[in-house]
Amino acid sequence: MRTLEPGSTIGVLGGGQLGRMIALAAAQLGFKTHIFCPELDNPAQQVADQVTHAEYDDIDALSKFANAVDVVTYEFENIPVSTVETLSSKKPVFPNSRILKVSQDRLQEKMFLNDLAIDTAPFKGVSSVEEALSALEVISYPAVIKTRRFGYDGKGQAIVKRAEDVLAAWNNLTSDQNIIEGFIDFDMEISVIGVRSQDGVVKCYCPVENKHKNHILDISIAPAAIDEEIKKTAIDQATKILNTIDYVGVMTVEFFVSSHAPKLRVNEIAPRVHNSGHWTIEACPSSQFEQHVRAICGLPLGETDFKGQAQMTNLIGDDILQYEKLLAEGRANVHHYGKKEIRAGRKMGHVTRLYDHKD
Predict the structure, then answer these.
(1) What's the pLDDT tens digit per position in 256-300?
(2) Please, which residues bridge with residue 73 across strands?
(3) Domain 9-93, what architecture?
(4) Domain ranges of the chain
(5) What tens digit of pLDDT does each residue of 221-231 get?
(6) How far is Cα 296 from Cα 287, in angstroms, rounded to an integer?
(7) Nearest Cα residue to 45 out of 91, 12, 73
């Protein structure tokens, strides 16, 4: 357990909007932030104390960065494992590199979860069209072919409904190291945002329902309309994952909820603060970003309780042009990420609305 004093500097790998919100939460608690990322114009550096622009494999830049900070974290999961291991030899890095080795590879992630007796979609690792066709004879159609690494927001995957679809789907992927996942007929997708401190205390927010548009998260509704048994199981499984891997910081576990057995399956793990937890900024005593800062700095965790209902809506692409209209609502909590260029599919901000009752 290492507790940092206010005035210490948190190093953040990545300069996106999640890094921006970590920096804002850090400032609230009296900490400085130092952003490390290749991009020259990024949302996080606008609110940070320092920034280093360098590639993640630049050993000299990483060394200087490590000497300038007191602890290191990251805001997205595709940071090279070697980067985290290099920094870990110089300064504490939370979460640890073990979770990256698991979460960066969809096959390893599914195997890790099944070893914990946590249900997932049926799956099989494949490296050729022939192997894919063979696996699909067992898993059956429809199914999803995904790259094992570097996929998000629907990228790096394709649905196949019959054998004739496989070749075209395969050729559209960027890798020959892929995974077949059985298609899950689910009623709802939920996520659990959990946090674990350096001394092993775990706290979870209520599960939230997530709705997507064009494979990108559109709306999160807290709490999810699920029964107590599903809620308890989801939180228990998220806690089990956090403890098994000796995790420190915020982690998000996404689930599929079905009316038939198994009623709960993990879709994926995100070892970071998450889009589906943005509502916690206004709705909870301590937001997911503040909890992450508390955990990596060795501070006591805040509370996660919440009464009523919250709805977070992403502002994607041209949605940000509603900015002034949203501000005019008065009760809408509007977040602009400071991105200059509007692009289709780009997350430009979000808005959270709070309600006193679930209805």
Answers:
(1) 999 999 999 999 999 999 999 999 999 999 999 999 999 999 999
(2) 12
(3) 3-Layer(aba) Sandwich (3.40)
(4) 9-93, 122-182, 188-355
(5) 999 999 999 99
(6) 14
(7) 12
